[in-house]
Amino acid sequence: VSSISPIIEKDKTGFVLNNFHRTETKAGKKLWEVTAKTGEYITQTDSAKLTNALIIVYQKNGDIIQVESEKAILQFDNDSLIEAFLEKTVKLNVNKEKFVTTEKADFNKLQNTIVAPGYAKIEDRNVTLEGELLNVDLSLGILQYGKKVKTLIKSDHRPASPSL
């Protein structure tokens, strides 16, 4: 249950929700959901400023993308999420298998992309990638760094210990 506090300032009107929660469904299926410790909804811009946010996006192919961040600004078009600007300890995972950490990212729902302009690290069971200017196309499953890329490939196979 959310608690509501009105906000009245010179240039914006809206309200603050503690335990913010918002979802969009279509034909009985969840498209996305957002939860946050607090959410300030600004009616004039159809946006929300969140703290300690968790965004879950359900892809058409069945993938589940989860993004956590300390701060987020969400842009809506009526009930639809258009874009999320994420800051401070941004953590993203796809199906709880691939993990991305960065300090700033932009999730564009319409283009189904994520851009992290600074340093970002991707980890899964077998590979760690680090670099700057990460572009992720969620529809195609393509991750691309713009510069300063480092790669570490991990092996599940360890050499046998010598017999004595």
How would you describe what is shown here?
- This protein is mainly β and 164 residues long.
- Helices cover 0% and strands 73% of the residues.
- The protein has no helices and 10 strands.
- The chain has strands at residues 3-8, 13-26, 29-42, 47-58, 64-77, 80-94, 98-108, 113-123, 127-137, 142-153.
- A 10-stranded antiparallel sheet has the order 1-2-3-4-5-6-7-8-9-10, with no helix packed on it.
- Strand 6 (80-94) and strand 7 form a beta hairpin.
- The protein is globular and about 55 Å long.
- The chain starts with a strand and ends in an 11-residue tail after the last strand.
- 23% of the residues are buried.
- The model is unreliable at 1-11 (pLDDT under 50).
In short:
With 164 residues, the protein is mostly beta strands. The protein has strands at residues 3-8, 13-26, 29-42, 47-58, 64-77, 80-94, 98-108, 113-123, 127-137, 142-153.
